[in-house]
């Protein structure tokens, strides 16, 4: 993620660098300089430009030492010296920069989730252009990571949260789960234990914290399915934008909903078992029994029955048993132990 416009060859000295050659802005970044209508037009590294007007962003909340604003005068203390204790990210921004405003809430969120593994220092390049010039920055937003008094790496543009997370982990190591991830783990444990109300409350809390969190939404859908509230589950899935319907968590929840609705219409398992006892080739009875067993979390038995249909008559009902197994795998997820078991069983029959 480091950008070609950065020049990290020398230790920060506090003196402006020579004017760098022209460069194209990074994707999602604005060129460093204001339009000709009245602002900064020189590239970083040139002679200092007088500050222009523009409101400063609201400072970090009092007592929040993870995020702060700095000045040229305080840069040595806030960044160079501070980075000897913990890595410091410096966000170079300007009031007129649209991508900067997109990046700010995202990077602040990731830094806070890192719980002290890194700090964030923001520097307005209109008010304080000298440091950006020293570093050869030519487009903003630009984020530089300092560690042990030295700039290490950086990126430009309003990049996604996942990229910022990866960047911080390269600089500071694993940062641990976020608050939302902790709630998700608790919600999954509650659902596995059969505490449907507790699971629903926790998944809802995740959605309140992060409205776009698809894992939280998918978990709530699965909780509704477990409670047999199929209409509510389907309505919730319908709120997911079309472009995100293929998300693995959403796809798995939808598959579980479809299986549960299908199983609810199948009737009594005892009757199906009696039919199989009298005719082992009653594939329709075996197929429906597999669906009921899966609905009651007897997944291994469900897999075994479907594999048995494939073994006895693979092309039955247009390979319905094999296709149903694949739907099970989608619902359970690729790493689930029963998915792995089912794939092994199916392969042993198909390639025998």
TrEMBL record:
GO terms for biological process, alphabetical: cell redox homeostasis; response to stress
Query: What segment(s) does the record annotate as region Disordered?
Result: 1-42
Keyword Disulfide bond (UniProt): yes
Biased segments, Low complexity type: 14-39
Give residue ranges for domain Thioredoxin: 50-173
Record's compositionally biased regions (Polar residues): 1-13
Quick check: keyword NADP in the entry?
Answer: no
One annotated GO molecular function is: protein-disulfide reductase activity
By its UniProt entry, which InterPro entries does this protein fall under?
Thioredoxin, Thioredoxin-like_sf, Thioredoxin_CS, Thioredoxin_domain, TPR-like_helical_dom_sf
Highest taxon above the source species:
Bacteria
> Which key words tag this protein in UniProt?
Disulfide bond, Electron transport, Redox-active center, Transport
Instruction: List, alphabetically, the GO terms of the cellular component aspect.
Output: cytosol
> What family is this protein classified in?
Belongs to the thioredoxin family.
Q: What is this protein called?
A: Thioredoxin
* Organism, scientific name: Prosthecodimorpha staleyi
Its taxonomic path starts at:
Bacteria, Pseudomonadati, Pseudomonadota, Alphaproteobacteria, Hyphomicrobiales
């Amino acid at each position: 993620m480091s950008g070609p416009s950065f020049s990290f060859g020398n230790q920060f000295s506090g003196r402006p660098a020579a004017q760098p050659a022209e460069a194209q802005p990074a994707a999602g970044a604005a060129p460093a300089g204001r339009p000709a209508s009245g602002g900064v037009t020189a590239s970083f590294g040139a002679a200092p430009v007088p500050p222009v007007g523009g409101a400063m962003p609201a400072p970090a909340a009092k007592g929040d030492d993870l995020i702060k604003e700095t000045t040229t005068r305080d840069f040595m203390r806030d960044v160079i010296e501070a980075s000897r204790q913990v890595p410091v990210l410096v966000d170079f921004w300007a009031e007129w920069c649209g991508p900067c405003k997109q990046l700010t809430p995202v990077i602040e969120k990731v830094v806070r989730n890192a719980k002290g593994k890194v700090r964030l220092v923001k520097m307005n390049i209109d008010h304080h252009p000298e440091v950006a010039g020293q570093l050869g920055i030519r487009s903003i937003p630009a984020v530089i990571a300092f560690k042990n008094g030295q700039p290490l790496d950086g990126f430009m543009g309003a990049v996604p949260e996942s990229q910022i997370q990866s960047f911080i982990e390269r600089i500071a190591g694993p940062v641990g789960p976020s608050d939302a991830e902790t709630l998700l783990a608790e919600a999954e444990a509650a659902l596995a234990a059969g505490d449907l109300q507790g699971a629903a409350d926790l998944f809802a809390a995740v959605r309140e914290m992060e409205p776009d969190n698809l894992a939280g939404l998918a978990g709530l859908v699965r909780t509704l399915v477990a409670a047999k509230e199929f209409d509510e589950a389907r309505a919730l899935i319908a709120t997911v934008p079309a472009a995100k319907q293929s998300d693995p968590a959403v796809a798995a929840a939808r598959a579980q909903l479809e299986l549960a609705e299908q199983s609810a219409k199948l009737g009594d398992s005892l009757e199906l078992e009696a039919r199989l006892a009298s005719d082992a080739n009653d594939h329709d009875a075996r197929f429906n029994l597999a669906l009921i067993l899966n609905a009651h979390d007897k997944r291994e038995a469900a897999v075994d029955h479907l594999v048995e249909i494939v073994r006895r008559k693979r092309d039955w009902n247009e390979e319905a048993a094999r296709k149903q197994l694949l739907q099970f795998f989608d619902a359970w997820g690729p790493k689930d132990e029963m998915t792995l078991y089912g794939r092994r069983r199916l392969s042993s029959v198909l390639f025998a």
